[in-house]
Amino acid sequence: MFKETIALVTGAASGIGLEIARQFVEEGATVVGVDWNEENLQATDESLGDRFIARLCDVRKADQIRDLCKYIGDEFGRLDVLVNNAGTGILQDPEEIGEMEFLFNYDILLKGPVLLVKDLAPMLRKSANPSVINMASVAARINAAKHVLYATAKAALERYTQHLTRDLPGIRFNCILPGVIETPLLNNYGEENVPAILELVAGRVPCGRAGKAEDIANCVLFLCSDKATYINGASIVIDGGLMQAGDFGL
Ligand SMILES: NC(=O)c1ccc[n+]([C@@H]2O[C@H](COP(=O)([O-])OP(=O)(O)OC[C@H]3O[C@@H](n4cnc5c(N)ncnc54)[C@H](O)[C@@H]3O)[C@@H](O)[C@H]2O)c1
């Protein structure tokens, strides 16, 4: 289905982004996979084959984003899919937040996507079915201890996505809000705590388990496909029912 597709996936060297890249490659797309983790990116490059093109880039850095976008323009002349997926966060109490923590969270989770859309919009307009997916989080809607910066940056990303549908007609913008997904990101809570978190989540989520990267990637590929050309400005919660059942428990 994606044989002619050129896709750019950020945070492609781990977890959800890696699975999105893997599925696009499997379906015939050419994927430019971006990450700031050189070692994991190299391993991804080796495992996904010729149609995966690894590009080292820190999405907080405007100059690196400009270079990346110039590469896309020079190499392909257009872009069909942009997945703004790169993410992590520093978790902190509101009274302990400094400028460094604020900028770290907001630069990765909001500034990166904003700059990528700005620089890539002309190339997306050259596609027959241009699609942008922004990876937010259920944290945008529900509260958890020490998540205030991460949550508000993700909430801003969701609103940004909606706003873009008005400002940049002709390109589809959709947002995904994952619940608790089993990826290396959970190590931010302490690697030793992950098994207990997964058990707790399995008890709270109506579907009876934490999510898997493919639960998210399956939806991304659908949203970017020619079966979803009227889905625009949507926010899709993929959390096994967690949000309806209560809070994170975290
Ligand atoms: N795992 C979850 O439970 C969960 C829940 C909700 C939302 N999300 C979101 O999904 C996205 C993917 O997360 P994941 O769970 O796959 O995490 P992950 O840690 O497995 O992968 C994230 C990737 O992003 C990369 N990255 C981080 N900052 C970057 C930067 N500045 N520049 C380039 N690359 C950068 C990391 O190196 C890593 O490879 C994130 O935006 C995350 O906030 C995850």
Please give the structural blueprint.
Layout: E1 6-10, H1 15-26, E2 30-35, H2 38-48, E3 52-56, H3 62-76, E4 81-84, H4 99-124, E5 131-135, H5 148-167, E6 172-178, H6 194-204, H7 213-224, E7 235-238, H8 242-245
Parallel strand pairs: 1-2, 1-4, 2-3, 4-5, 5-6, 6-7
The chain binds nicotinamide-adenine-dinucleotide.
Nicotinamide-adenine-dinucleotide binds at residues 10-11, 13-17, 35-37, 40, 58-60, 85-88, 108, 135, 137, 178, 180-181, 183-185.
Overview in brief:
The chain is of the alpha/beta class and 250 residues long. It is built from eight helices and seven strands, in the order E-H-E-H-E-H-E-H-E-H-E-H-H-E-H.
Order of strands in the sheet with most strands: 3-2-1-4-5-6-7
The CATH homologous superfamily is called NAD(P)-binding Rossmann-like Domain
Query: What is bound: which ligands?
Result: nicotinamide-adenine-dinucleotide
Say what the CATH topology is: Rossmann fold
Please count the beta strands (DSSP E, at least 2 residues each): 7
Elements, N to C (H/E): EHEHEHEHEHEHHEH
Major sheet: 7 strands, parallel
Task: Just give the CATH class.
Answer: Alpha Beta
The rounded distance between the terminal residues' Cα atoms is: 39 Å
Structural class: alpha/beta
Mean pLDDT over the full residue set: 97
Domain count, please report it: 1
**Assigned CATH architecture:** 3-Layer(aba) Sandwich
Compute the gyration radius: what is it?
17 Å
Count of helix runs: 8
Shape: globular
Range of helix content: 40-55%
Describe this structure in words.
This protein has helices at about 15-25, 40-50, 60-75, 100-125, 150-165, 195-205, 215-225, 240-245; strands spanning about 5-10, 30-35, 50-55, 80-85, 130-135, 170-180, 235-240. The chain is α/β, with parallel strands linked by helices. It has one domain (about 5-245): 3-Layer(aba) Sandwich (Rossmann fold). A seven-stranded parallel β-sheet has the order 3-2-1-4-5-6-7, with helices on both faces. Strand 5 (about 130-135), helix 5 and strand 6 (about 170-180) form a beta-alpha-beta unit. Helix 1 packs across helix 7 (about 215-225), helix 3 packs parallel to helix 4 and helix 4 (about 100-125) runs parallel beside helix 5. The mean pLDDT is about 95. The site of nicotinamide-adenine-dinucleotide has 27 residues, from helix 1.
